[in-house]
Amino acid sequence: MTLPHLSRRDLMVGSAATLAATSLIPNFALASSPIKTAGIFTLPVEQQWISRIHNAAVAANAAGQIEYRHAESISNTDYPRVMREYAESGVQLIVGEIFGAEQEAREVIADYPDVAFLMGSSFMPDAALPNLSVFDNYIQDASYLSGIIAGAMSHGNIGMVGGFPIPEVNRLMHAFMAGAREMKPETKFQVSFIGSWYDPPKAKETAFAMIENGADMLYAERFGVSDAAQEKGLLAIGNVIDTQADYPNTVVASALWHFEPTLQAAIAKVAAGNFTAENYGVYSFMKHGGCSLAPLGTFEGKVPQAALDLVAKRQAAIKNGSFTVEINDNEPKSA
Questions:
Q1: Same domain, 297 and 177
Q2: Does residue 238 share a domain with residue 203?
Q3: Are residues 21 and 123 in the same domain?
Q4: What dihedral angle (degrees, nearest 10) is formed by the CA atoms of 333, 51, 269, 315?
Q5: Where are the alpha helices (DSSP H) in 46-193?
Q6: Among 46, 62, 111, 326, which residue's Cβ finds the most Cβ atoms within 10 Å?
Q7: Residues 84-90: what's their mean pLDDT?
Q8: What are the pLDDT digits (tens) for 155-172?
Q9: Strands (E), the chain
Q10: CA 151 to chain centre
Q11: In the prediction, which pLDDT does 7 show?
Q12: What's residue 28's pLDDT?
């Protein structure tokens, strides 16, 4: 495999988000020697979760912190080989996600102790692998706040379509449900998983079935759900990225993930020579700037004031530490 260089598409994908991300980069990073960095992704960089990592890296590249290359749509079976090729090429920091190749990936990481690996993982750091730090999108704070808005805008029957019932999805759904029920305790939920990270047609059909079963609002953890809501004239809540521009009359709010704090923490440690095995999940928390509630935009003035007041109250409490959103990684059920 020929390792890809930063391409024109790298600079164009999510350009608005990249410009915004650049403003989050601290001054320490404008160092004399950019860190050679590679991103390895199992899906295209346009995919919602991957795009947050990729855009943060593109912004860091533009700021002169890193020299960034990436490989996308890498299968889990091929992932270890690509890791090795990047490690052999002299890369100092590798960022990616090893959820589907944990054992094989960790074997590769053990063979390159001088390379720092920052990988999305369902497992915690291992003292035997001091060069591996893990992360996940712990954006339950923002998901909870989006649930408050959903509870206020729904009549009490919300359909929730997810990819897989794994911890990084489950915790967001539970937080959303808790927020909705704080606003409207009698809210009922229809929960379903489509068994894919990217299958918009299947997600859409699943959402249609929920609408047939009485859902008056949808939680769009996957692409395709907001399309169903739009076609049926219902409202939806987004996840990880803000899609309101594509669905201006449908997506009320979204819980956004900001990967910049996670990446910046790793860059700082690599630059200082003290990168070690840590759990970077905390950098996705709202108090660290790792997540936020998207602006209401086209729904400004349409959300009940009681919900906005509760969102403001809870958001302030989350940031000052007086309120903690529960992290529940168990599979959510319809209820």
A1: yes
A2: yes
A3: yes
A4: -50
A5: 48-62, 79-88, 102-111, 140-153, 167-183
A6: 62
A7: 98
A8: 999 999 999 999 989 999
A9: 35-40, 66-71, 93-97, 116-120, 132-135, 157-162, 188-193, 217-220, 235-240, 251-257, 291-293
A10: 22
A11: 31
A12: 37
| 151 and 58 together in one domain | no
User: What average pLDDT does range 32-42 have in this prediction?
Assistant: 93
Nearest to 290 by CA among 325, 259, 264, 320: 259
Residue 190 structure tokens: 């229809």
The reported pLDDT for the residue numbered 201 is 97
Q: What is the pTM of this model?
A: 0.87
Q: Give ∠ CA 309-310-314 in degrees, rounded to 5.
A: 120
When pLDDT is cut at 50, 70 and 90, the band that residue 235 belongs to is very high
Asked if residue 253 and residue 232 are part of one domain, the reply reads yes
Please state, rounded to an integer, the average pLDDT across all residues of the chain.
91
> CB of 173 within 8 A of CB of 165?
no
**24 and 165 fall within a common domain:** no
The 10s digit of each residue's pLDDT in 168-218 is 899 999 999 999 999 999 999 999 999 998 899 999 999 999 999 999 999
Question: Does 282 reside within a domain?
Answer: no
Max Cα–Cα distance, the chain, nearest Å: 59
Residue 237's domain spans which residues? 140-257+290-320
Q: Residue 99 is part of a domain; what is its CATH number?
A: 3.40.50.2300
Q: Which of the 8 DSSP states describes residue 97?
A: E
Average pLDDT, integer, range 272-291: 97
Please give the structure tokens belonging to residue 124.
Answer: 């915690």
Nearest in space to 131 (alpha carbons), one of 277, 22, 316: 277
Helices 200-212, 225-232: axis angle to 10 degrees equals 40
CA distance 180 to 199: 26
Check residues 1 and 117 and name the one with the higher pLDDT: 117
Q: SS3 letters for 194-213?
A: CCCCCCHHHHHHHHHHHHHC
| Token couple for 88 | 């052999």
* Residues 305, 183 share a domain: yes
